[in-house]
Design brief:
260 residues; alpha+beta; 2 domains; four-stranded mixed β-sheet; 6 strands; DUF6283
Length: 260
């Protein structure tokens, strides 16, 4: 349904409508036909103009005529912008984007990496997670809370030119969020993220006072048990248009080292 439009009688004076009393749309229509119903050039032009105004305002022709007559009675020009209220724009909301799981890869018997698509523009955590399982980008997070294989699988999210994203471990595939720590330290080479931040479609998270993060994905992954020479940590840089292509239209979003 569209947004309903008002068809009120216009400004009120001393509690009374400024236009003529009307029994309804039927009376308005009858008034138009009674005054301008003749088959003359003048009346045809009046009826045509009333039809244009009524279509633009979303009102019956008789109601438009009443508004015009009220303007004349107040000494205002019938051509003023207030004579006939404009039709309200009908805003059709965009359909909701439902995230779709396109891959699940196990890192151990508990944790794994889930890749989704369809969450563009993405949501993001306001700050790096705390609690029992804090964000792995935090230097004070317990080492080894997530298996090294999870960091190896998610390494492409920080590859130069990649459009993949590292997901927050406390989000879910149905309600994904970008990891705040990754966005603050590991997304510099992601052209899609840079564009979202530049246009304001994505807001950067905050880093609370005193909280320290790893400087890079490689530093974080190595601290959590990944071999410093593992090839996943050193992927070749590729142009953005060739990076992480996927048959679906939206850039994939990895659950990262933290998505169960």
């Amino acid at each position: 349904m569209g947004v309903p439009h008002d068809t009120g009688v216009g400004p009120q004076r001393d509690g009374m409508p400024a236009t003529r009393p009307s029994g309804g749309a039927g009376d308005d229509a009858a008034n138009v036909e009674g005054l301008y119903g003749a088959d003359t050039e003048h009346d045809r032009r009046v009826r045509a103009r009333l039809a244009e105004l009524s279509a633009a305002a979303g009102m019956e022709p008789g109601a438009v005529l009443a508004q015009l007559n009220a303007c004349v009675a107040r000494g205002e020009s019938p051509g003023s912008s207030e004579a006939v209220p404009p039709r309200r724009a009908v805003i059709t909301p965009e359909p909701a984007r439902v995230p779709i799981v396109v891959a699940r890869r196990a890192a151990d018997h508990v944790w794994g990496v889930t890749t989704i698509t369809g969450d563009d523009p993405p949501a993001v955590r306001e700050r790096p997670c705390g609690g029992v399982e804090p964000c792995p980008w935090r230097r004070d997070a317990p080492l080894g809370q997530f298996p090294p294989a999870a960091f190896e699988l998610s390494a492409p999210t920080s590859a130069p030119g990649s459009t993949r994203r590292f997901g927050c471990h406390s989000s879910t595939p149905s309600h994904p969020r970008i990891c705040a720590g990754w966005l603050l330290r590991g997304a510099d080479g992601n052209p899609r993220i840079r564009e979202l931040l530049r246009t304001g479609r994505l807001s950067p998270p905050e880093l609370p006072d005193g909280m320290e993060l790893y400087d890079s994905y490689t530093e974080m992954a190595v601290a959590n048990g990944v071999d410093p020479g593992h090839p996943a940590l050193y992927p070749p840089a590729r142009p953005p248009e060739e990076a992480d292509l996927h048959p679906l239209a939206d850039p994939p979003h990895d659950g990262g080292a933290c998505d169960p």
